[in-house]
């Protein structure tokens, strides 16, 4: 197993791929490897990309990756799509927009389903970011599903969060209200070739202005046409500038701390849930307690107390 | 946690529509699999690199034109060369009966003609994926 971690650190694509699978399946071997990989991670610039479905995130990531390759950087991409709550299956289609990158040995793309996690970021994303980071990727890009909580979660994992907006969908103001404004380090207004672009730009500019009036720094807004690769070098420059500005600051350290805090919470949560709901002894007890709750013999709070006191014993 | 079957659905070659491949992709998702869908015009190299990065258990290839022989066998060859010989490869499309034995020999384990039911394909995958 240590051997797998070594191969990951040498950048071997098959080892990276296998390692990610182990992490996704929360296998015990993955834990051992992650212990090794952790010491080698923390160098990559992690970029989170969020925005509604159809905004052009995947197209934009493809272009950004090509730009970073031109600049001599190795790139890892994690593309997340929702897992169907009914079947547990998922249709992962982001690669359609990234096929030109498929044969570049210095690009590694992985598609992931959310797999029953609430919110859009699957728990294993922390591991996958760390794996790609430790494998020597300079840039790790995470594309989220673009619904609700996911967009807010992405900030914890990313050094730089890019919010992609588009004209027309009427989503720009809406999503900003939903708390996106707080998480954006950079805005990309995509589909600048489409009608309504000027209006969307103006809307966002005035919102950014409003926040700047409160004394906070102005979030950069970059117009792009992802489909034609226009505005991409400027976008890459802006993203890099954000990281440079952050580096070495107290804020950056705090941000990284919060990222590990979120990961720690996630690991503990996952293990506790697994313990309570997967292990037979507990599982049976849980069923009994649910019976009692049904029959009003017990209330959910007392039942939870009982389970937790057993777990913590 | 139960291990999920990961499938790459690809449409190699030059012919132009992917309706069939999409139907298959959706059906496999509804059967609980994680389906990586890559769209049209894949080269053998693209298919194999994608399969490696995505660590898939299965590759489903869809083809309409007569180019299945070279493309399918190229992909099977490349997979073996890169140490991915364990991946289950299945193919669908209009494939003449006389080509089937040679395709199977080259490593395409399941060949499904136009009339095949989705259930048949799903069952075949579930039974043949190496656990
Ligand atoms: N007009 C226009 N369409 C674009 C642009 N960028 C992406 N698209 C299209 O928007 C659609 C959704 O793109 P995709 O990258 O899959 O969006 P995602 O769901 O956010 O990942 C696709 O049909 C793209 O071709 C652009 O700059 N202009
Ligand atoms: Mg996408």
Percentage of β-strand residues of chain B:
15-25%
Number of structurally distinct domains of chain A: 2
Alpha carbon gyration radius of chain B: 13 Å
Low-pLDDT residue intervals, each spanning 5 or more residues of chain B: none
Order of helices and strands of chain A: HHHEHEEEHEHEHEHEHHHH
CATH superfamily of the largest domain in chain A: P-loop containing nucleotide triphosphate hydrolases
- Mind describing the biggest β-sheet of chain B? 5 strands, parallel
* Beta-strand content estimate of chain A: 5-15%
Question: Any overview of this molecule?
Answer:
The complex is a heterodimer of chains A (313) and B (131). Chain A has 313 residues and is α/β, with parallel strands linked by helices. Chain A is built from twelve helices and eight strands. In chain A, α2 crosses α3 (28-38), α4 packs across α9 (232-246) and α10 packs across α11. Chain A starts with a helix and ends with a helix. Chain B has a single domain (26-128), classed as Rossmann fold (3-Layer(aba) Sandwich). With 131 residues, chain B is of the alpha/beta class. The longest helix of chain B has 14 residues, at 68-81. In chain B, α2 packs across α3. Classes of the chains: A alpha/beta (313), B alpha/beta (131). At the A-B interface, α2, β3 and β4 of A face α1, β2 and α2 of B. β3 (90-92) of chain A pairs parallel with β2 (34-37) of chain B. The complex binds guanosine-5'-diphosphate and magnesium ion (MG). Guanosine-5'-diphosphate binds next to α4 of chain A. Magnesium ion (MG) binds at residues 57-58, 94, 143 of chain A.
């Amino acid at each position: 197993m240590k051997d797998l971690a070594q191969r990951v650190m040498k950048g071997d694509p098959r080892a990276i791929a296998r390692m990610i699978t182990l992490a996704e399946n929360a296998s015990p071997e993955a834990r051992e490897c992650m212990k090794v990989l952790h010491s080698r991670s923390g160098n990559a610039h992690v970029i989170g990309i969020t925005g509604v479905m159809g905004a052009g995130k995947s197209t934009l990531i493809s272009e950004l990756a090509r730009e970073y390759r031109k600049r001599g950087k190795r790139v890892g991409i994690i593309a997340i799509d929702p897992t169907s709550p009914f079947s547990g299956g998922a249709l992962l289609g982001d690669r359609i927009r990234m096929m030109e990158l498929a044969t570049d040995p210095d690009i590694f793309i992985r598609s992931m389903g959310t797999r029953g996690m609430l919110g859009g970021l699957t728990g294993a994303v922390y591991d996958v970011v760390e794996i790609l980071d430790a494998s020597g990727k300079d840039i790790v890009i995470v594309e989220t599903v673009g619904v609700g909580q996911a967009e807010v979660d992405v900030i914890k994992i990313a050094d730089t969060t890019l919010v992609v907006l588009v004209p027309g969908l009427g989503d720009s103001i809406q999503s900003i209200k939903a708390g996106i404004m707080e998480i954006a380090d950079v805005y990309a207004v995509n589909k600048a070739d489409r009608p309504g672009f000027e209006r969307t730009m103006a809307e966002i500019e005035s919102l950014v202005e409003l926040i700047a009036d409160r004394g906070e720094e102005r979030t950069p807004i970059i117009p792009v046409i992802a489909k034609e690769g226009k505005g991409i070098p400027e976008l890459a420059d802006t993203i890099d500038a954000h990281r440079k500005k952050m580096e070495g600051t107290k804020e950056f350290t705090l941000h990284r701390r919060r990222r590990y805090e979120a990961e720690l919470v996630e690991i503990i949560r996952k293990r506790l849930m697994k313990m309570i709901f997967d292990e037979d002894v507990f599982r049976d007890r849980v069923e009994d307690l649910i019976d009692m709750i049904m029959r009003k013999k017990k209330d959910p709070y007392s039942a939870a107390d009982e389970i937790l006191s057993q777990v913590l014993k | 946690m139960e291990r999920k079957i990961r499938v790459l659905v690809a449409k190699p070659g030059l012919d132009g529509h992917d309706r069939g491949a999409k139907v298959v992709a959706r059906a496999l998702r509804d059967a609980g699999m994680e389906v990586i869908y890559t769209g049209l015009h894949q080269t053998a190299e693209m298919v194999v690199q994608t399969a490696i990065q995505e660590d898939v258990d299965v590759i489903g290839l869809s083809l309409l034109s007569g180019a299945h022989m070279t493309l399918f066998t190229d992909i099977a060859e490349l997979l073996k060369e890169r140490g991915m010989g364990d991946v289950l490869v299945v193919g669908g499309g209009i494939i003449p009966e006389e080509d089937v034995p040679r395709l199977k020999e080259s490593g395409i384990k399941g060949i499904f003609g136009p009339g095949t039911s989705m259930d048949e394909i799903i069952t075949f995958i579930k039974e043949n994926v190496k656990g």
